[in-house]
Design goal:
It is a single chain. This protein is an alpha/beta fold. Strand 6, helix 10 and strand 7 form a beta-alpha-beta unit. It is globular.
């Protein structure tokens, strides 16, 4: 697969067969290059997510007939390329997630009907020829972004009755990053769950429907695909995944936020906005170093159907960050920052407020009609 993608030199008949079968340094570098180009975690290993991405990368649009398959849908780069093409032409396939599901099949059938083909929802040679002949229809912006923004603004500015899914990372047999501290042992899973519960309480008090993807001590850890599916099943309007980072270098510190995006420029515009708001609010309110926002194609972000972000709230391996993270009052400030970011998501851009200026206590008060968050004084 790496050779097909031109990440490894072609095999030759004179090559040493035993050497060819080794996962050597050159292979690891090729894997890292692939992961970097695909927005995956760059560790040089073929885990489940990297393997699925490699398998999907083999396909180019037109190489096979595409159709809706149940229960196992077709997945591949050719599906993503088809979805991107349909989005450019004004058809609603949702997010270009490389999965040929019902929404993609309906969009293909609609296109086929408009060009006089049998609307069977499958993309074969005739449909491909029609796609190649026609140009894009949408002008004035990215169609997916336009739909996402219209849906967001159409839901109103209040948090009441909106649904948010909060995902505390790890859990169960996987504690995540673990750091001993005297008689104590700090774990990423425990701190992430504590943040999630605090955020759950505050957003619930503001009128949101809040769901957590796990409890404090689950028997098994959910995969990222399962967490994304759970969020979709719950019909979330927003999705926030909470993690705490770790690194071999104790000098690594700061907060980073991730949203869905690809190297081809396809992104969740609203997810990117949520990531920016979360990042800026946390940096402003906590003093954590700003490690910026980043586009990734992690399944957790790609497979969720709502704006989704993953927040790495500091480094547990950093003495500087750890001293802050173990303080409950500091975790309250992190939660207040995320709550302010969620509220700002529903303000029209022209009515947005400066970072750090929302007093989150007024958001809960606004639910009872006591005051309006927009007029809150600066902190």
């Amino acid at each position: 697969m790496l050779r097909v993608l031109d990440l490894l030199p072609a095999w030759t008949a004179t090559a040493d067969a035993s050497a060819e079968a080794e996962f050597d340094e050159q292979t690891e570098l090729a894997v890292r290059a692939f992961q970097q180009s695909r927005g995956l975690s760059v560790d040089g290993r073929i885990g489940a997510e990297t393997w699925r991405a490699l398998d999907a990368a083999r396909w180019r649009l037109g190489a096979r007939t595409l159709y809706q398959s149940l229960p196992d849908p077709l997945v591949g780069d050719d599906v993503r390329q088809l979805q991107e093409r349909l989005l450019e032409m004004g058809y609603d396939v949702g997010r270009a997630d490389a999965i040929y599901g019902a929404r993609t099949a309906r969009a293909v059938a609609m296109f086929q009907r408009e060009v006089g083909l049998v609307p069977d929802g499958a993309c074969g040679p005739q449909t491909m020829n029609a796609l190649r002949r026609l140009g894009r229809k949408v002008v004035g912006g990215a169609p997916l972004a336009l739909r996402e923004i219209a849906k967001l603004h159409g839901s109103g500015r209040a948090l009441v009755d909106k649904t948010i899914v909060i995902d505390p990372g790890h859990g169960g047999p996987d504690p995540g990053v673990t750091v001993p501290d005297g008689l104590l042992r700090w774990t990423e899973a425990d701190l992430a769950f504590d943040l999630a519960r605090r955020l759950e309480g505050r957003l619930g008090a503001a009128g949101m429907r809040v769901h957590l993807t796990r409890g404090p001590a689950p028997e098994a850890e959910l995969t990222d695909r399962e967490r994304a599916q759970l969020a979709n099943d719950l019909g979330g309007d927003l999705f926030i995944s909470l993690h705490i980072d770790g690194h071999a270098n104790p000098g690594a510190h700061g907060v980073a936020t991730y949203h869905y995006g690809t190297e081809s420029g396809v992104t969740s515009t609203v997810g990117e906005r949520l990531a920016g708001l979360v990042q800026r609010e946390i940096v402003m309110r906590t003093g954590l170093a700003n490690c910026q926002t980043h586009a990734k194609t992690w399944e957790l972000l790609r497979l969720t159907r709502m704006p989704a972000v993953r927040v790495e709230v500091g480094y547990l391996t950093s003495p500087l960050d750890r001293e802050k993270l173990v303080d409950p009052l500091f975790r309250d400030r992190v939660v207040e920052a995320m709550m302010a970011a969620v509220q700002r998501m529903y303000f029209p851009v022209e009515e947005d407020v400066p970072t750090g200026s929302i007093d989150v206590s007024t958001i809960r008060a606004a639910m009872a009609g006591v005051s309006d968050p927009v007029s809150a004084p600066s902190l």
